[in-house]
Amino acid sequence: METINALGRRKAAVARVYLSDGKGKITINGRDYKEYFGAETLQYVVTQPLVLLNATEKYDIKANLDGGGVKGQAEALRLGITRALIMLDAECKSSLRTNGFVTRDPREVERKKPGQPKARKRFQFSKR
Question: Rounded to two decimals, what is the model's pTM?
Answer without folding.
Answer: 0.90
